[in-house]
Amino acid sequence: MNEQNQILYNRIIELSNRAYKNNIYVFSDFLSLSQQDLFFQATRDKSFAPIAYDLFGGYENCERKMVRFGSEKDFGYEVDFPIKCIKIEPLAKKFAKAYTHRDYLGSLMSLGIDRKKFGDIFVDGMDAYMYADESTADYLLENFVSVGRNSVKCSFSELPESYKQANLKESTIQVASPRADAIIARVYNLSRKDTIPYFTEKKVSVNGHIVENNDKILAAGDSVSVRGFGKFNIVSEGGLSKKGKLNLTVEIFGAK
Predict the structure, then answer these.
(1) Alpha carbons 97 and 106: distance in angstroms, whole number
(2) How far apart are CA 167 and CA 46, in angstroms?
(3) At 96, which CATH number?
(4) Among residues 33, 52, 75, which one ends one of the domains?
(5) Which of 54, 98, 117, 199 is 20 to 30 A removed from 150 (C-alpha atoms)?
(6) Do 19 and 57 share a structural domain?
(7) CA atoms within 13 A on the CB side of 108
């Protein structure tokens, strides 16, 4: 484990113990998929406190997520995640240029904001929506004023349901096997051989856990992310086709 990961690993254990010993909710920063995998490794450490936890990023299908240490069962009350959604829109849409996710990310980083302080960014035409922790969100409302050549304004909002639905496609696929490589290949129109590098380079995660074994068996309820392609959920398993293939219903995010 490299030094940076070791620091995060130790931090996770420290947060679990702080919540447990002080009987208070404690929250992590936003964690990437690889960091979430590190979190799950830390939960198996004997030093990790015996306390409940949840992961959430703003809405159920976010990739970057915070960890909340503690639960209503532990403390007798519940505290929401300190996450706010911000809408970013040009001051003059008539003359504005449409920018990409990378452009928004670059503009945020240029303000000196640590990547761990904000979560997923969703670009919706000329507008964008992003999740951030509460203190960062308050700062952005006052200081995030431009993206590229666009002058922008920020306001508290919610990710529109129309955006979620427009970027979600339900599809039925047929696979010879419920193996991860077979399903990923079918969802993203790849050969099984083409999927192998994504496993060896740790670009595949299932339910927040990095998966290196391409023969892992997947099932209904699993959420799969493939860096470079996106994310999909396995909604349900159907019967076998006449040719003996397994029918699966999947939700694919970002599908056109």
Answers:
(1) 16
(2) 41
(3) 3.30.70.330
(4) 75
(5) 117
(6) yes
(7) 28
Cβ atoms within 10 Å, residue 238? 12
Please give the tally of structural domains in the chain.
3
Instruction: Give the H/E segment covering residue 27.
Output: strand 26-27
pLDDT digits (tens, 9 = 90+) for 91-126: 888 777 888 888 999 999 998 999 999 999 988 888
Tokens 């447990």 -> residue: 20
Phi, psi of 223 (to 5 degrees): -115, 125
Say if residue 177 is in the same domain as residue 128.
no
Q: What domain range is 203 assigned to?
A: 167-253
In degrees rounded to 5, what are phi and psi of residue 216? Answer: -60, 135
Predicted TM-score (pTM) above 0.90? no
User: Residues 151, 221: one domain?
Assistant: no
The CATH number linked to 241 is: 3.10.290.10
Radius of gyration of the CA atoms of the chain, in A: 20
Distance between the two ends of the chain, CA-based, in angstroms?
39
